[in-house]
Structure formats: C-alpha cells, structure tokens
Design brief:
Structural class: mainly alpha
Number of domains: 1
Number of strands: 0
Shape: globular
Helix content: over 70%
Largest sheet: none
Strand content: under 5%
Order of helices and strands: HHHHHHHHHHHHHH
Number of helices: 14
Length: 383
C-alpha cells in the first residue's frame, strides 16, 4: 500500500512550486558555474573616441562659461527681477493672511501699491531734509578728503598709504568732462536697469506659475512633483532672507541715526539712510557706508571721529549679536564665513552688482544642495 501512495506524493518541480513546496535540487559543481562577464560601458569606445568625447565636453563647458560671462548683465537683471518678485509675493502672502479669500493677482497688485506708496510717502516727508543734508554732504566731502590727505602726508605711514592710492594725471577740464559723462551714463544705465527689474519682477510675481511650469516641464515626468517642492522651498528661503535682511538694515539705519544725533554729528539723518542702503551687502557694505560719517566728523571736528567710529562699531555689534540672531530664528541662518566668501567671490566675478546679489544667490545654492544632494541623493532627512 505504501508503494501505491508514495508515487502519488511525488510532485514535479512545476507542481511543487505551485503548491508551495520547494523542490529539491542537485548540488552544482562550482567548477561548472560560469559567471556572467560584465562589460564596462566604456569598452565600446576606442581610446581616440574617448579623448574626442572628453575634449568635446571640455569645449562645451568652456563655451558655456564664456556665454555666462558675456551675458552676466542679463543674468544679474534676471536674478534682480526674481528677488523683486519674491519680495512682492512675500508682502502679498502677509496680506492674504488678513484676507484669506483674496487671489494672488490682487494680493500682488495691492502689495505693489503699498510698497510704492511707502516709498513715495517717505520721499515726500523726508526728501527735503535728506536732499538738504545730502547737498551739504557733497560740499563737505571734498574738503574733508583733502584734509585727510594733508594729515596723512605728515607721517611716514600716511605717505606710504597715499602712495598706493590711484592718482589722475589728466587735465582738470578733461577730468571734469569725463566725470560728468560717466555720471550721466551711469545714471541712465541705473534707471534703465531699475525699470527692467521692477517691470520683470512685477510680471513674474503676478503669474509665477507660467514660468515655473515652463521650467519644470524640462524635467522628466516622475520628478516633476519633487521639482515643484524644491522651487517652493527656494522661494520660501528667499522670502525669509529678504525679510530678515530688511529688518536688520532698518535697525542699523535707525540706530545709527539716533547714535549720531546723540553725539551731535551733523547730517545724521542722511548718514543713517546711507548706512541703511549699504548694509544690504554684508561685511563690505557697513565699512563703505561708515566712510561718509567719518569724513563728515573729520571735517567738522577731528576729535569727534573717535566717537563716530564708536557709534558705527556699537551698532554693528548690536546687529551681529542681537538683531541678526533674533531674525534668523524666524527666517534663515547662513554661516558667516560663507557670507564673507560669497560676497568677495561675487564681487571678484561680477563687480559691485555681483557683491549685491552674491548672498541671495548663496541662499539659493545652499537650499538646492540641501534639498537635492543631501535629502534626495544621500537620503538624509536633515531633521
């Protein structure tokens, strides 16, 4: 009877697999196992072809760098338009918190009107005093510079410093005409660039989906949702940085104005406005913005230069150790060393305009590295 049952229990390998039973396999001789040979991807190319491909890639990269260098002004204008659009969107988002049912177009339009109304109101009420003080400042600076030069000529160290300052040997008429032409050309270029940035930023903020959708369509379909997330994160970081930078600039301008008024320095309001504008550029901007105040103090009372310098130093310390940490808790934090290197690198490549946009560009690059490389490629959630 067992002989009749045993054959029925024997299953073929296919039936054993379907029934869940693992069939027994005979051990394979290791010497008979033939491993598949993997062919490297580059084995299809000969050495001359590899050299040609490498040279071609190098030439393309060089041409790309040259193209970016030749169109640097266009890139700067484009990035400036993006920053202005982000600023308008940030103001519009705060307005939409008060009126949740307001559309994005109405929010951006109202934000633009409020921004220009604020600037116009400030110019209307403060422009007469600022204009008068600025005129006085332009009259005081040349004698102050000459006085500083005469003071430096009285010491060996001062003469050493003056020897490295540029001199202009041209005649007075040619020098004046060249300066006048340069001022007019620079003013015309500044107005043109400003109008391009304002118009481009407004239309970009009014309908950002048109540009974002066109950019995201360049990516493969499975990665497009992630591309939208990264772009939103970059916009969020830029909004936070602009908000924090504006708060820090406003604090520096007001504190400088108050401090100079307390010690009795003339032209305190216009000097506060100057440091407010130059504080947009970290490290370099405050140093340049403090020079007019020091020169004005030197022209009126050389003994007050020390007090004016202390005011600028104290204000910068308050910004560094109190204002910036408080702001960065709500916005975005950047390493100070990267800020300094970014500003210097931007100035070395693109000049003054590169120094201005270097920090927001650094914010964008750090965000892209965090979102794409660290989170997506390395798999680090960065909690």
């Amino acid at each position: 009877m067992l002989k009749n049952i045993r054959p029925k229990l024997r299953l073929s390998p296919r039936e054993a697999t379907q029934s869940g039973e693992v069939p027994r396999q005979r051990p394979t001789d290791p010497a008979q196992v033939v491993l598949p040979q993997s062919t490297p991807p580059s084995a299809d190319f000969t050495y001359p072809q590899k050299v040609t491909i490498a040279v071609g890639i190098t030439i393309i990269l060089c041409l790309l760098v040259l193209l970016l260098w030749a169109s640097q002004s266009i890139l700067l204008l484009g990035f400036g338009s993006v920053l202005f659009a982000v600023l308008l969107r940030a103001i519009a988002h705060n307005i939409q918190r008060i009126a949740p049912h307001m559309s994005d177009r109405w929010g951006v339009s109202i934000a633009t009107l409020l921004l220009f109304a604020f600037i116009g109101g400030f110019i209307t009420y403060a422009a007469p005093q600022i204009s008068e003080q600025f005129t006085t400042l332009t009259e005081k600076l040349p004698p102050a510079i000459e006085q500083v030069e005469s003071t430096l000529n009285q010491s060996g160290v001062g003469r050493f410093v003056l020897s490295y300052l540029p001199t202009d040997p041209q005649p007075q008429f040619g020098n004046t005409f060249g300066k006048l032409t340069g001022i007019v050309g620079g003013l015309f270029a500044f107005i043109t660039y400003l109008l391009v940035i304002l118009a481009g930023g407004f239309f970009l903020a009014l309908n950002p989906k048109l540009y974002v959708n066109g950019f995201v369509s360049l990516f493969p379909i499975p990665t497009r949702p992630r591309a939208y997330q990264v772009i939103g994160k970059v916009a969020e970081k830029l909004e936070g940085w602009l908000l924090g930078q504006f708060i820090a600039m406003l604090a520096v301008g007001i504190l400088t104005w108050i401090g100079l008024e307390i010690i009795g320095v003339p032209l305190a309001l216009v000097l506060g406005v100057i440091i407010f504008i130059f504080d947009f550029v970290p490290f370099i901007g405050p140093l340049v913005g403090a020079l007019p105040g020091l020169l004005v103090a030197f022209s009126y009372d050389p003994d007050s230069v020390i007090w004016v310098g202390l005011v600028y130093i104290i204000v910068q310390q308050i910004e560094s150790f109190l204002v910036v940490p408080l702001v960065q808790q709500q916005t975005v934090s950047l390493p100070p060393t990267l800020l300094m290197l970014g500003a210097l690198l931007g100035g070395a490549i693109f000049g003054l305009a590169g120094t201005v946009i270097a920090i927001p560009a650094l914010v964008v690059m750090i965000t892209l590295v965090q979102e794409i490389y660290i989170k997506d490629i390395l798999g680090d959630p960065m909690d």
